[in-house]
Amino acid sequence: MARSDHPSARPFLPDKRNLKSLAEAAEGCQGCPLYKGATQVVFGEGPRDARLLLVGEAPGQQEDKSGRPFAGPAGEALDRALEEAGLDRATLYITNAVKHFKSENVDGEIRGLKPRVSEINACNPWLQAEIEEIQPRIVIALGTVAARGLVGRAITIGEAREQWMQTKWGQPLIVSFHPSASIQAPFQERRDRIFDALVYDLERARDALNEPRPQPGA
Ligand code: URA
Ligand code: SF4
User: Fold this and answer.
1) For residue range 53-111, what is the model confidence (pLDDT) as tens digits?
2) CA neighbours within 13 Å on the CB side: how many for 72?
3) Dihedral (C-alpha) 22, 25, 28, 29: value to the nearest 10 degrees?
4) Residue 123 class from Cβ within 10 Å (0-12 exposed, 13-18 middle, 19+ buried)?
5) For the domain that residue 149 is a member of, what is the CATH number?
6) Is 41 contained in some domain?
7) What is the reported pTM?
8) In testing the pocket of ligand 2, which one of 22, 35, 118 has its CB within 8 Å of the most ligand atoms?
9) Mutate to test the pocket of ligand 1, among 82, 94, 96, 144 (most ligand atoms within 8 A of CB)
10) Is residue 126 within 6 Å of ligand 1 at its C-beta?
């Protein structure tokens, strides 16, 4: 089948893999059409020995400009949640299910768009390679796009929250809300509830780092 039918980042992955070679190779990725409309690739960042790996959706406008994940308003919300949960961002590996900004221009205003399933799938080899390099003890999906990239099928937060799931590569997985939901949901009360749930899930991950391996479904 032609590559346009089944786009994938796979042909762009380097043979010799480490975080640096992966990030460099991702700059040239044309595995799906999203590279065309973005300023630059936004690869994951964090230490090689991170035990916790967080996955967001895709870069937003700020990330597209700066080249760093969670550098804009969603990142500020994430930083507040991490601080409340007693986690130091510098010790975590943070990345996205999709590595290029997806946007539309409506009357001169740039708006971010949710990636499609075909784009999540196309970008999945990068996420897999990051997870293989880091070998995190626990993975956290921030929102449903991340969950799909990590599990390989549609997941609702309602079905997945407050239990241990598993990534398709075998790591214990927590599925939580996307930090953006804690600033964008209608009604302050709902925003507060989402933020508290995110903090609770981050705390669960933090506590589990010091315990025996969590069992899926527990
Ligand atoms: N939203 C995401 O999902 N990831 C980012 O890096 C920024 C905003
Ligand atoms: Fe490649 Fe992912 Fe960018 Fe698509 S979004 S071009 S698969 S890095």
Assistant:
1) 999 999 999 999 999 999 999 999 999 999 999 999 999 999 999 999 999 999 999 99
2) 16
3) -50
4) buried
5) 3.40.470.10
6) yes
7) 0.95
8) 35
9) 96
10) no
126 located within any domain: yes
How long, in residues, is the chain? Answer: 218
Q: Is residue 218, in this structure, part of any structural domain at all?
A: no
d(CA 11, CA 32): 11
Which residue range forms the structural domain that includes residue 155? Answer: 10-208
For the chain, the 3-state helix, strand and coil shares in percent, each to the nearest 5, are 40, 15, 45
> Tens digits of per-residue pLDDT, 124-144?
999 999 999 999 999 999 999
C-alpha span between 172 and 139 (Å, rounded): 6
Mutate to test the pocket of ligand 2, among 22, 29, 39 (most ligand atoms within 8 A of CB): 29
Q: Which residue's alpha carbon is nearest to atom 4 within ligand 2? A: 32
How many domains would you assign to the chain?
1
Angle at 39 between CA 72 and CA 43, to 5 degrees: 65
Contact present, 156 and 177 (Cβ < 8 Å): no
Q: State the burial class of residue 87 (Cβ atoms within 10 Å of its Cβ: 0-12, 13-18, 19+).
A: buried
**CA–CA separation, 149 vs 96, rounded Å?**
9
CA–CA dist 152, 65 (Å, integer): 29
Pocket of ligand 2 (CB under 6 A): 9, 26, 29-32, 34-35, 41, 98-100, 119, 122-123, 126
User: Is residue 4 in some structural domain?
Assistant: no
